[in-house]
Amino acid sequence: MAMMGSRLKLEILSDERTGLGATYRYSGTVMGLSIDFSEFVTKYLPPREKVWRTIGEPRLLIIASYEMRVAIERLSPTSARLTISIVYELPSSAFRRIVALLLDRPYSRWCLRRMLQDARRALEAPAKVTA
Fold first, then answer.
1. Which of 38, 62, 79, 104 would be 25's cystine partner, CB 3.0–4.6 Å?
2. For residue 128, what pLDDT is reported?
């Protein structure tokens, strides 16, 4: 239910899989509707910050293009602050813009909440010991 029946294919378009300049393309369906967009990593300062944005003309359901940022600020040896943000543009067509104005805030909150939940799960997972 959380992904609303989505099926996404990830293609890595750059030589590097991660880091500054890494470029990805996602294509597939969400709720039976086609989506297709590419992202480009514009800032990468591991393990402190990563910024990426859509490139080209993304075909998304609710928003048009976006930029996302994840930053980690060390507060003490045992704690840190995780900040996740999104800045986005609304679609230009009248119909899609009306739909976006109704759904953009709940959708962006859902995206950010999912990212925070995924980060929390990753941080709380027991450390894997290799021998």
1. 38
2. 63
